[in-house]
Amino acid sequence: MRKTHTRDTTMTSDDIEYNCYITGEVIPENADARFTYEFDAWVSKEGQKLIDEWVESGMQTENVEFDLIYAEWYAQDEADAARWDEAMGIDDRDEDNY
After folding, report:
1. Is residue 34 in a domain?
2. Rounded distance, CA 57 to CA 14, Å?
3. Is the entire prediction scored with pTM above 0.85?
4. Does residue 30 sit within a domain?
C-alpha cells in the first residue's frame, strides 16, 4: 500500500503501478513522490521538479494544473510549518511588523 502523507513520501506498493500525473511516466516502487488530492494522483520527483521550475520562472505560461497543485502543496507546507512552530513554541506573528 502506498503512503499518501508528507511531501516526499517513499512509495510502497501491493503490486499496483502508478504513473506520475505530470510526466505520465511510471513511478518506480520505493521512489520519492508526492500526492495531490486535487487530482487524486501521484507526482514523481521529476514532475515536482517541473512544477518547481515553472514557479521559479515566475509562472509565465498559464498552466491551470500546475497552479492548482502548487497552491495545494503550498497550503499544506504552510500549515505543516505553522503546526511545527506551535509545537516548538515559536511565535513569529510579529516578525512582519519589524
Report:
1. yes
2. 38
3. no
4. yes
The C-alpha atoms of residue 39 and residue 60 are separated, in whole angstroms, by: 22
Question: 54-58 long-range CB contacts below 8 Å, 24 or more apart?
Answer: none
Retrieve residue 16's grid coordinates.
499496483
Tens-digit pLDDT profile for residues 33-82: 999 999 999 999 999 999 999 999 999 899 999 999 999 999 888 888 88
State the SS3 of the chain: CCCCCCCCEECCCCCCCEEECCCCCEECCCCEEEEECCCCEEEEHHHHHHHHHHHHCCCCCCCHHHHHHHHHHHHHHHHHHHHHHHHHCCCCCCHHHC
pLDDT greater at residue 64 or residue 7: 64
For the record, the C-alpha cell of 19 comes out as 504513473
Give CA–CA dist 1/13, Å, rounded: 5
- With cell 503546526, the residue in question is 83
How many domains does the chain fold into?
1
